[in-house]
Amino acid sequence: MDTRKPLRRSAPVETENDGIIEGRNAVVEALRAGVTIDKIYILKGETDATLGHIASTAREKGVVVVDADRRKLDGMSRTHSHQGVIAVAAAREYASVDDILNIAREKGEAPLIVVCDELSDPHNLGAVIRTADAAGAHGVIIPKRRSAGLTAVVAKTSAGAVAHVPVARVPNITALLKQLKDEGVWVFGTAAQGNTSLYKADLKGPAAIVIGSEGDGMSRLVAENCDFTVSIPMFGKINSLNASAAAAVLLYEAVRQRTGN
């Protein structure tokens, strides 16, 4: 019996499927080719000229660059030869906030937007996008940093909804909320101690629903910039819902109100 281990011929396919791009030449080529990249992780403290060039080129293109220790990079690596840099390709191109607002205008509908404030779990983000598609929301907005992006995991969890729901990425959620207000959109933040009960919130007009992070909820500044903080009635022993579940509850209350059901 041949007991030799099989050659790892499937590695390139795995790399392509999960969006991981490893090694200096591969990342440089991806940037040159215009691949939509979610984030680039570079070995912390490394002063190598090539890595410096990768970082500066990425920032010029608006790509988020993250300093990572070797353990982080080793854990992400598929080839075990990352050379101090790993890029994560986005499953699709990001939209702009204007794109999302224009979609609502073209449909003649009041905007219905989901804003995720530092939602770090890609499974939660994927589930939010899937629900946003089902509820007819016009788009989802996430921050550039401290958030899951449009990775392969998000795309898979969304069951393909990333192909249909525009996702915009912005540098600052607080500034975004001010922009939405200037566009006539009312901002509803979800909070356990919200000042408005869900069933008293008027979600028929232009609305942005803000979903906080899994652990801490909305940040203080984001909460302060909401027009309303909305609480979901809870009758059991647990006093909070998973972030994607909370998004689903609010989105479908908006659907109910907008359809008159």
Walk me through the topology:
Layout: H1 11-18, E1 20-22, H2 24-33, E2 37-43, H3 49-60, E3 64-68, H4 70-76, E4 85-89, H5 97-107, E5 112-116, H6 122-135, E6 139-143, H7 152-157, E7 167-170, H8 173-182, E8 186-190, E9 196-197, E10 207-211, H9 220-224, E11 228-231, H10 243-259
Parallel strand pairs: 2-3, 5-6, 5-10, 6-7, 8-10, 8-11, 9-11
Antiparallel strand pairs: 1-4, 2-4
Structural overview:
This protein is α/β, with parallel strands linked by helices and 261 residues long. It has 2 domains: 11-89, 2-Layer Sandwich (60s Ribosomal Protein L30, Chain: A), CATH 3.30.1330.30; 97-259, SPOUT methyltransferase, trefoil knot domain (Alpha/beta knot, 3-Layer(aba) Sandwich). Helix content is 38%, strand content 19%. It has 10 helices and 11 strands. Helix 2 (24-33) runs parallel beside helix 3. The chain is elongated, with a radius of gyration of 20 Å.
Descriptive tags:
single chain, 261 residues, alpha/beta, four-stranded mixed beta sheet, 10 helices, methyltransferase
The named CATH superfamily of the largest domain? SPOUT methyltransferase, trefoil knot domain
Largest sheet: 7 strands, parallel
Q: pLDDT under 50 segments (min length 5)?
A: 1-16
Computed structural class: alpha/beta
Distance between the termini: 68 Å
Brief description of this entry?
This protein has helices spanning 11-18, 24-33, 49-60, 70-76, 97-107, 122-135, 152-157, 173-182, 220-224, 243-259; strands at 20-22, 37-43, 64-68, 85-89, 112-116, 139-143, 167-170, 186-190, 196-197, 207-211, 228-231.
